[in-house]
Design the sequence.
């Protein structure tokens, strides 16, 4: 439909015009009859989410991440220069000769003089500025030279057009600097630990998995260190921090982890492995010494560099099993390799003793590390000892007889073990009193759909399900809560598969994603749950929600292109526009058989910084005999502040506090349906709170 500007219909004389306000609330409802559906609900949505109180908010964007500055945080600086004698080029890194400040060139403009004459004057538009340039200092780059004329001014444009152009250029230039995780294939896992992002991806040949971490220069490979097996561990224990020396070879290594898999030091039967970062020399079949203590253990040969098999699917937790503030560590598994512990430097595999030691799911309960295996086995460590799996000190195996698909913790100290077709509840606090009870014999969780949001939320064959505590302590009841969109979920699960899910604490949301690139948002309100849809345009292959070192919630996901993305960041889909739709139900204004003349719909909108919407309408359930309303383009400006209550720099000067946008209709029918579309790249998210309909009553429909 061709977009046309809003056009006011001709006024009708001596006609009473009524107004009805419709608050937008309820989310998608695909099951209620047309005559009873909430008029503020939705029959279709895309890339909008239920707002905090009521209304629908255009979702935030996502943007790539690798440890360098976020595109959405980008800014620009204007630095005037004179005495230019050598031309600067876009992309040059300039340096202040006195201040040592640096910046990357976005735009070069010469307003007078020439480079060849040594008197070029003009301005440089910079981004990624570090430090403070000084007046009258030399500024140089690989091929450019000039003298600073003043200091660099952030957002120093003299008009709105230049400001917008240069800011957007800085955002895109910052985005271009951020790279994919090196290697091939999809992302295998993403996580945040200690304020650092981690990612796993196959190497270029697809022959091994590689662990990467973010840095100020992008993704860097994590050295997994070396592993050395030992037997005959004697009475004198080798401990972390000891330097071991080969009795024959003289090779040495500083021990970072000691893992005993069988026996014990006291009886001289300890066997297991040492983890260290590097070694000097080459170990051989020999005994090991620590200083003057001789023959403390026996080895059969040299240590080996630790490597990962390719193509796993990683799951992680951050936990502190040891009690010290310095011992909170990252734990993970992937269904292909052994589980592991990582402290930011030391990567230590976890040996459980299983013949196929490749757990796929991980959790923590009562200071035990729990691992789930495909064939229905649940194993756990000794309490407070995630690396210890010897049966002498407390670990055990729990069989469930079905594929493990996830774990969850629920209030009351109960641990949930999800199978694909069953659900178990584990009561107790240790191997001495574990009590595994079958909760549901024919209902389990679809893999990668499990999240805890107050209670465990997950997707099973019946729909989205919640496992809630009931009145009697220790009892739980599972109930589906997705009835309003069950047809949508059935279609997704029939034609696609679940790829990931995530909880969003700050928004009380549960999001589940599918292999077709779409997803569903469930917003939890005190007395209701609302649903809308997401379409990122790319597949969310793995996702996580983790707090950083400041307590800020960070949402990350990985996709098929090898990039790590931060979700709910920026105003675009990594540089592409966000296209959103809202379709309201056919509202009859409590008079389903009464004809009405509709004049206009006035949208109440919170749009900080402004935005543009497209508006159209349909009458009488979309009767094809009634022409579809023309698509109108509506410009919206809001975000103004009230004197004495607004925060300076966080409101738009001269704008309305609440924006309004008028969509003209001029049509007759018993009911009206409204479709709203938005498509923006740099506009901040807007919220459509309600609709005021202007109409007049006519005769009864015949």
Sequence:
């Amino acid at each position: 439909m061709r977009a046309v500007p809003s056009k006011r219909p001709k006024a009708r004389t001596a006609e009473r015009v009524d107004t009805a306000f419709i608050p937008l609330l309820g989310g998608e409802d695909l099951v209620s009859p047309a005559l009873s559906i909430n008029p503020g609900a939705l029959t279709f949505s895309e890339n909008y989410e239920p707002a905090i109180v009521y209304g629908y908010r255009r979702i935030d964007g996502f943007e790539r991440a690798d440890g360098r500055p976020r595109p959405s945080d980008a800014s620009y600086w204007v630095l005037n220069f004179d005495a230019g004698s050598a031309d600067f080029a876009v992309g040059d890194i300039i340096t202040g000769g006195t201040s040592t400040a640096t910046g990357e060139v976005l735009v070069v403009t010469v307003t007078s003089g020439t480079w060849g004459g040594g008197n070029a004057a003009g301005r440089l538009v910079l981004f990624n500025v570090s430090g403070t340039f000084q007046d009258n200092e030399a500024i140089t780059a690989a091929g450019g030279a000039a003298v600073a004329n003043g200091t660099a001014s952030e957002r120093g444009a003299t008009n709105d057009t230049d400001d917008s152009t240069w800011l957007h250029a800085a955002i895109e230039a910052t985005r271009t600097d951020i790279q994919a995780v090196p290697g091939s294939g999809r992302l295998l896992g993403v996580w945040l630990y200690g304020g650092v992002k981690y990612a796993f991806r196959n190497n270029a040949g697809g022959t091994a998995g590689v662990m990467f971490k973010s840095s100020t220069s992008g993704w860097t490979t994590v050295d997994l260190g070396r592993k050395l097996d030992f037997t005959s561990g004697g009475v004198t224990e080798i401990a972390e921090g000891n330097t071991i020396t080969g009795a024959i070879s003289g090779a040495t290594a500083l021990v970072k982890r000691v893992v005993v898999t069988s026996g014990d030091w006291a009886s001289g039967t300890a066997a297991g492995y040492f983890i260290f970062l590097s070694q000097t020399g080459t170990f051989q079949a020999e005994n090991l010494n620590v200083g003057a203590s001789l023959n403390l253990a026996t080895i059969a040969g040299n240590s080996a560099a630790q490597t990962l098999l390719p193509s796993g699917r990683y799951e992680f937790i951050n936990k502190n099993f040891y009690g010290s503030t310095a011992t909170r560590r990252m734990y993970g598994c992937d269904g292909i390799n052994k589980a592991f512990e990582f402290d930011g430097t030391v990567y230590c595999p976890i040996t459980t003793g299983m013949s196929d030691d490749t757990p796929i799911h991980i959790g923590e309960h009562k200071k035990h590390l729990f691992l789930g295996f495909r064939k229905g086995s649940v194993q756990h460590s000794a309490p407070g000892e995630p690396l210890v799996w010897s049966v002498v000190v407390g670990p055990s195996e729990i069989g469930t007889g079905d594929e493990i698909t996830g774990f969850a913790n629920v209030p009351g100290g109960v641990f949930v073990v999800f199978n694909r077709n069953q659900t178990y509840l584990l009561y107790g606090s240790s191997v001495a009193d574990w009590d595994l009870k079958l909760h549901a014999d024919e209902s389990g969780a679809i893999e990668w759909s499990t999240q805890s949001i107050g209670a465990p939320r997950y997707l099973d064959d019946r729909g989205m399900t919640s496992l809630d505590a009931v009145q009697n302590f220790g009892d739980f009841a599972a109930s589906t809560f997705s009835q309003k969109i069950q047809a949508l979920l059935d279609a997704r699960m029939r034609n696609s598969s679940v790829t990931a899910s995530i909880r969003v604490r700050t928004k009380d949301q549960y999001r589940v994603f599918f292999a077709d690139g779409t997803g569903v948002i469930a917003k939890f309100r005190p007395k209701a749950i609302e649903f809308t849809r997401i379409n990122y345009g790319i597949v969310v292959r793995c996702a996580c929600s983790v707090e950083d070192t400041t307590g800020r919630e960070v949402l990350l996901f990985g996709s098929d292109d090898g990039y790590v993305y931060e979700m709910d960041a920026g105003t675009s889909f990594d540089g592409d526009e966000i296209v959103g739709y809202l379709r309201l139900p056919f509202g009859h204004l409590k008079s389903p058989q009464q004809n009405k003349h509709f004049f206009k719909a006035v949208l109440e909108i919170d749009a900080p910084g402004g935005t543009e919407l497209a508006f159209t309408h349909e009458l009488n359930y979309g009767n094809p005999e009634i022409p579809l309303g023309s698509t109108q383009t509506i410009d919206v400006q809001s975000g103004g502040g009230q004197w004495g209550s607004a925060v300076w720099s966080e409101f738009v000067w001269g704008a309305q506090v609440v924006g309004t946008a008028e969509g003209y209709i001029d049509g007759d029918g018993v009911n009206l349906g409204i479709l709203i579309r938005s498509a923006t790249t740099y506009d901040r998210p807007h919220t459509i709170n309600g609709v005021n309909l202007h109409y007049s009553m006519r005769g009864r429909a015949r």
Notes: Confidence is low (pLDDT under 50) at residues 1-5, 645-654. Helices lie at 160-177, 486-495. The first strand starts at residue 3 and ends at 5. The first helix runs from residue 160 to 177.
